[in-house]
Fold:
Amino acid sequence: MIILDGKKTSNEIKEEIKITVNSMKASGERPPHLAAILVGNDGASLTYVGSKVRSCEYVGFDSTLIRLESNISEEELLRHISDLNQDDNLDGYIVQLPLPNHINEEKILLAIDPKKDVDGFHPANFGKMALELNAFIPATPFGILQLLERYKIPTSGKHCVVVGRSHIVGRPISILMSQKGPAGNATVTVAHSRTENLDLLTRSADIVIMALGIPEYLTADKVKEGVVIIDVGITRVPDKKHPKGYVIKGDVAFEEVSKKAKFITPVPGGVGPMTIAMLLQNTLLARQWN
Ligand code: L34
Structure:
């Protein structure tokens, strides 16, 4: 069993980005600049966005964090987005999800200039991605592809079962895994809450990508020997014994499944850190493309 070390791989990618940024700066160019809008005080979102800002500093990017009250109106949020769209000193920005219920997420994502949409959530980018044109690939799927590629995991002709069909992870990764190219050419099955006999599917899979959000859903009896496991799930489960008051659990029962797996991502330390590294990569691309 080999652990797909997302922490280590993301650090390697950040080092690569840092070298590029240093040479940009040395030749008198302005470094890439990423902004993030964070609405409200959700603990997990604060952690993720905090980590994005710190990573920007580490690689030498400029960064701007815009924190807004959870009761902000949709109109006012759209005004911030319009400002960012017009800011020539900004290469890319994200609006951290989820947003409060009174705000229409779709409307917000549509307002982001696709050229600055380093999350790759805008329909223009999603469409280009699906058509194999140059586009920002959403950071989590991008990170999964990088892990598969850098660990030289064969995907061509393999049966990949993706559990989950979210616009952020399940849907895009299912498209990407079936495309031509590195970490592609897989035969993909997309499973979701309505799927019948899911166990039969995951048991037949060479690669399982779990993006369901149910802690430790995938147990050892549901996979075959030698499977490749990518665990995108990240749930904070209340735990009074832990000083933070919670423990982070993935969608995979790591202890038992790791005994059968050939490759497996841990949670934490797997896909999460990769998401952050690939957001930086997309911001660098935005700087280079625009
Ligand atoms: N707009 N919203 C937008 N873009 C994104 O790409 C995200 N996502 C998801 C939630 N909302 C978003 C993230 O950034 C999930 N996500 C994310 C980012 C980082 C980590 C996890 C999820 C991460 O760093 N995870 C660490 C543990 C962090 C902790 O202590 O909680 C890990 O090792 O998995």
The chain has ten helices and eleven strands. The mean pLDDT is 98. The pocket of L34 is lined by residues 44, 47-48, 51, 94-97, 119, 139-140, 234, 248, 267-269, 272-273, 275-276 (CB under 6 Å).
